[in-house]
């Protein structure tokens, strides 16, 4: 669904043109947990591939920080370094109620950052 929404489609098309001209240096993305699969679809279409991909284990959070709304992951997606923040608070009775945002993606190249 999301790749067919006009602003997302525009981002995917712009990202493909950019990646065809310049080597991607990084991806920075954030998403609520229940939109993680659509985010992977968007990133895959934007980069033209999913592979190679790999994620490191998330770093443990210090217990004195208390509950945190996001977990951060570092890895590689389509051969490009990726920082991913996942909003993991979810109200089972209203899945969208606690979403702090929808997809947020930044693709960095030597020429700049596409968001």
Summarize the structure.
The protein has helices spanning 6-21, 36-47, and strands spanning 26-32, 54-55, 70-77, 80-87, 104-109, 112-114. The protein has 115 residues and is of the alpha+beta class. The protein has a single domain (2-56, 71-114), classed as Dihydrodipicolinate Reductase, domain 2 (2-Layer Sandwich).
**What about the largest sheet?**
6 strands, mixed
Name of the CATH homologous superfamily: Dihydrodipicolinate Reductase, domain 2
How many distinct helices? 2
CATH fold naming:
Dihydrodipicolinate Reductase, domain 2
Uncertain runs are: none
Q: What's the structural domain tally? A: 1
Distance between the termini: 19 Å
Reading the helices and strands in chain order gives HEHEEEEE
Residue-averaged pLDDT: 93
CATH architecture: 2-Layer Sandwich
Task: Report the radius of gyration as a whole number of Å.
Answer: 15 Å
Strand residue percentage? 25-35%
Structural class: alpha+beta
State the helical fraction: 10-25%
Strand ordering within the main sheet = 2-3-4-1-5-6
The best one-word shape is: globular
What is the CATH level 1 assignment?
Alpha Beta
Number of strands: 6
């Amino acid at each position: 669904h999301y790749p067919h929404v006009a602003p997302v489609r525009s981002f995917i098309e712009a990202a493909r043109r950019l990646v065809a001209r310049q080597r991607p240096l990084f991806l920075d993305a954030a998403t609520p947990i229940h939109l993680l699969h659509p985010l992977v679809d968007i990133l895959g279409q934007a980069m033209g591939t999913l592979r190679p991909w790999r994620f490191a284990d998330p770093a443990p959070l210090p217990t004195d920080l208390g509950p945190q709304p996001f977990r951060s992951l570092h890895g590689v997606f389509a051969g490009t370094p990726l920082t991913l923040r996942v909003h993991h608070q979810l109200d089972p009775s209203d899945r969208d109620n606690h979403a702090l945002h929808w997809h947020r993606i930044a693709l960095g190249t030597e020429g700049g950052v596409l968001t």
